[in-house]
Amino acid sequence: MSPSWNKEVLAALAPKGRTLVITLGSTLRADDGVGPYVCSHVKFNRPELRLLDAGTTPENVAQTAIDWKPDKVILVDAAHFQGTAGEVRVIPLEAINQSTAISTHSFPLSVTFSIIKEDTGCELAVIGVQAKSLDYQEGLSPEVEATAAKLVDYFNGL
Questions:
Q1: What range does the domain containing 112 cover?
Q2: What does the buried/exposed string (b/e) look like for 24-48 if buried means 16 or more CB atoms within 10 Å of the residue's CB?
Q3: Tally of domains in the chain
Q4: CATH number of the CATH domain containing 109
Q5: Least CB-packed of 7, 10, 96, 100 within 10 Å?
Q6: 11-32: per-residue pLDDT in tens?
Q7: Residue 58 lies inside a defined structural domain of this protein
Q8: What is the reported pTM?
Q9: Reported confidence tier of residue 120, pLDDT bands at 50, 70, 90
Q10: Enclosing H/E stretch for 23
């Protein structure tokens, strides 16, 4: 595992009861596509694990998340936290609008996921992957694609 996969990241990625993984991002904005990449490659085989791609409109999946009543929600999105491209960090909910690639999201992520957390009582973990580029182009940078592949391997191993 990468040095950025520390104990905090591993704890955030660990499922807890009914766990919903929500991926975010746009495949048309280079590394912002890390979430959709993960979603398209993960196949859960356990009923207590669910995957949902929110794209650039996470508010559209909020009710689905609330209705499923997860014990834990894990968000996966591109982020900008002055790290190395492909680095993974846990981002506190209160810092999500400053760290994530919110320019592609139509509604503040912190508001959407605060509502989900409040309505379900779930644990919420935000996993940010440091983007190298958010240019208007398709495809991930090699660094972010390598991290995305590790996330896919991790989730598929659950």
A1: 7-156
A2: bbbbebbbbbbbbbbbeebeeeeee
A3: 1
A4: 3.40.50.1450
A5: 7
A6: 999 999 999 999 999 999 999 9
A7: yes
A8: 0.91
A9: very high
A10: strand 19-24
